[in-house]
Specification:
Helix content is 49%, strand content 16%. With 206 residues, it is of the alpha+beta class. The protein folds into two domains: 78 residues, K Homology domain, type 1 (Ribosomal Protein S8, Chain: A, domain 1, 2-Layer Sandwich); 99 residues, K Homology domain, type 1 (Ribosomal Protein S8, Chain: A, domain 1). Helix 2 runs antiparallel to helix 3.
Length: 206
């Protein structure tokens, strides 16, 4: 039987973890087969496996769901982590940024973009969910998509122009679409042939 796990979350995220009338807490417990013991004053969460817990990864899943909510995700999005192919990636903003409140706000603003446009494009083109909270940027999605989104965010942090980031994301999206198409029809890179003048457009690959 897995052992009790422990983690500490920001106090201002305790309410989101508990939810109205404790509904979020109950949902996480039911989904993972665990019991959450939450100390609202300290921001501590103990995750204990129930005796009837069926999934041996229940405590591990609960830990990641709690961590995702703590990093700013909506609980419904965080609960996607119950699926085996969905992962959580927490990126800590560089220390040199975190030491300056103005620098931190500026870089977070670049990642989010005007009216949230940049964040929206990253999440849409990379097919991930994103939360920007405190000194972290967190991603939820399939691993391949997370790696694409992470690289786009690192480009922004390293000073790349937003236009360059968007182009990178568009190219990655087309690459992933082509790969999905070839996987769907069961062909490999050394087998696919294109006749002169014939190309797959975006609509064809969807």
């Amino acid at each position: 039987m897995p052992e009790t796990d422990y983690l500490k979350i920001p106090q201002n995220r305790v309410g989101a973890l508990i939810g109205k009338n404790g509904e979020v807490k109950k949902s996480v417990e039911k989904l993972t087969g665990t019991v959450l013991d939450i100390d609202s004053d300290e921001g501590t969460v103990y995750i204990t496996p129930r005796e009837d817990m069926e999934d041996p990864l229940g405590v591990w899943n609960a830990n990641h769901i709690v961590k995702a909510i703590a990093r700013g995700f909506n609980p419904d999005v965080a609960m996607k982590l119950i699926h085996d192919d969905i992962y959580l990636e927490v990126m800590k903003l560089p220390l040199y940024i975190g030491k300056s409140k103005k620098a931190l706000a500026r870089y977070k603003g670049r990642i989010i973009g005007t009216n949230g446009k940049t964040r929206e494009l990253i999440t849409e083109l990379a097919d991930v969910d994103m939360a920007v909270y405190g000194k972290t940027v967190s991603l939820i999605g399939e691993m391949e998509n997370i790696l694409v989104a992470k690289e786009a965010i690192e480009m922004i942090l390293n000073g790349s122009r937003h236009k360059s980031v968007y182009s990178f994301l568009e190219n990655k999206k087309e690459t992933l679409k082509l790969r999905e198409f070839k996987d769907l029809v069961g062909i490999h890179d050394d087998e696919i042939e294109f006749k002169d003048g014939i190309e797959f457009d975006e609509e064809t690959l969807q």
